[in-house]
Specification:
The protein is an alpha/beta fold and about 450 residues long. The protein has 2 domains: about 170 residues, Lyase, Ornithine Decarboxylase, Chain A, domain 1; about 240 residues, Alanine racemase (TIM Barrel, Alpha-Beta Barrel). It is built from 14 helices and 17 strands. Strands 1, 10, 11, 12, 13, 14, 15, 16 and 17 form a 9-stranded mixed β-sheet that branches. It has an 8-stranded parallel beta barrel with strand order 2-3-4-5-6-7-8-9, surrounded by 7 helices. The protein is elongated, with a radius of gyration of 23 Å. The chain starts with a helix and ends in a 5-residue tail after the last strand.
Length: about 450
């Protein structure tokens, strides 16, 4: 157990509100009793704080712009309610997402529509409601122009294919972009091109700043051709800090030794990559670093260019956790296997050929028994249905009636791949508030 403690302890960095729910006197046990299965806990006030951080950076740098919440990162409606309250826009990519945003009070001009090869219905809705459309291809641009006759004047951004990611299926190549500009000029008042957009993989500051500077120049050239073009969108990809630096660095050192790493995972499981669970800078600080790079903020101000961004994970940092009731514990020679009520589809990193590394927390922690290490499996009949291949250090053997709490799962983890496999219901969603030092909660219901 000493070796496991040294190698595998990866406690999550967690905000204060979590302790009010999970700690002594908190309502976690009552929630579990009410639900009777796996559930997600959501804290909208933290979302509002994260959104305010991004807006504060734009204000400090005197850069005009708008923050759009990347809705695909989490399906709950409570975030949209915070968007209406905090003047945060919403990034959608489907008709149901668009309709849900409207139903929660988001106005059309506060929505940006992204994604590839959008349906005619989605394009029509966007134009009808005055939403901003990120156009991805020449044939899509033609459909947008055709639908404008019945829907109104579409507002569009042209999405650029980054040279650093030439094999992406998204965005215009240089030659295609030139043709798109010509078609926009020919369309005249039937189309309003408001600028350009991109999305980069990874979490590096410098490439984002460099491509943003390039798009500023594209806007200037488009304006010279008579187009409005006063905005650029740098997409999402703002990093999140899940673990403290010392724990992450220790794990990375272990990961360099594949033989040692294999010992840390059930069945010697091997992985080709892990999300960077500790990064610097993160969230709104990363936005500040981008604006600081090569005078980008000054360039935006000088050219009157608006900066749009579409964070998803970063707005959801610290906004929720996922809870799985323990159904059984099976000891093996040197570690155990925990089985929980629920499926690994609710921890989406596992379904991208990787592992969600922050430690799940055993609740309650106290109880009889010696410390153990154990992996965590889901309740399906699939051998690869594993919430944690990694051998987790627990203060005692988990037993039926306990809960495993997976921290900081709101951003892309808790519902991206969820399924009703085995006809199991999807985990419930519980919305909490912690005003006046007391945690109050409600089960989130879909809009009728």
């Amino acid at each position: 157990m000493d070796l496991i403690d040294a190698q595998l302890r990866l406690p999550a960095v967690e905000p204060e509100w979590v302790e009010r729910v999970r700690g002594p006197g908190g309502p976690l046990g009552d929630m579990a009793h009410a639900v009777g299965g796996p559930f997600h806990v959501l804290h909208p006030a933290r979302f509002a704080e994260n959104a305010a951080g991004f807006r504060r950076v734009l204000a400090e740098y005197q850069v005009p712009g708008r923050v759009y919440f990347g809705k695909k990162a989490n399906k709950s409606g409570c975030w949209l309610e915070e968007c209406t309250r905090t003047d945060t826009g919403v990034d959608v990519a489907s008709v149901p997402e668009f309709a849900e945003a409207l139903a929660h009070g988001i106005r059309g001009h506060e929505i940006v529509v992204t994604g590839a090869a959008k349906s005619d219905r989605l394009v029509w809705l966007a134009a009808r409601h005055g939403a901003l459309l990120a156009v991805d291809a020449l044939d899509e641009l033609d459909r947008v122009c055709a639908l404008a006759e019945t829907a109104g004047t579409p507002r569009i951004l042209l999405r650029v294919l980054p040279e650093t990611n030439p094999h992406s299926r998204f965005g215009f190549t240089g030659d295609e972009l030139g043709e798109a500009i010509r078609r926009c000029v020919a369309a005249g008042d039937a189309l309003r091109i408001e600028g350009f957009s991109f999305h980069l993989n990874g979490y590096e500051v410098a490439p984002r700043a460099a491509l943003a500077a390039e798009l500023i120049e594209r806007c200037r050239a488009a304006r010279a051709a008579g187009l409005p073009a006063d905005s650029i969108s740098i997409g999402g990809g703002f990093a999140v800090d899940y673990l403290d630096s010392a724990d992450w660095e220790r794990f990375q050192r272990e990961a360099e030794d594949s033989r040692s790493l294999a010992e840390l995972f059930h069945a010697g499981k091997q992985f080709t990559h892990f999300y960077p669970y500790h990064s610097e800078p993160t969230g709104s600080r990363m936005l500040a670093a981008i604006l600081d790079t090569d005078g980008l903020a000054a360039r935006l101000r000088e050219t009157g260019t608006r900066l749009l961004l579409e964070p998803g994970r970063a707005l959801l940092d610290g906004c929720g956790f996922s809870v799985f009731p323990v159904q059984g514990y099976k000891p093996r020679q040197d570690y155990g296997i925990v089985t929980v009520a629920g499926l690994s589809m609710s921890i989406s990193e596992q379904w991208k050929g990787s592992e969600y590394l922050p430690d799940p927390v055993l609740w309650p922690e106290s109880g009889p028994g010696e410390p153990v290490s154990a992996c965590v499996g889901g309740s399906s009949c699939l051998d690869y249905d594993m919430l944690s291949w990694r051998k987790i250090a627990f203060p005692r053997a988990p037993r039926p009636g306990d809960l495993l709490v997976y921290p900081n799962t709101a951003g892309y983890q808790m519902d991206k791949n969820e399924t009703e496999f085995h006809q199991l219901p999807l985990p419930a969603r519980i919305v909490v508030s912690t005003e006046n030092e007391r945690a109050r909660w409600r089960i989130e219901r879909p809009l009728s």
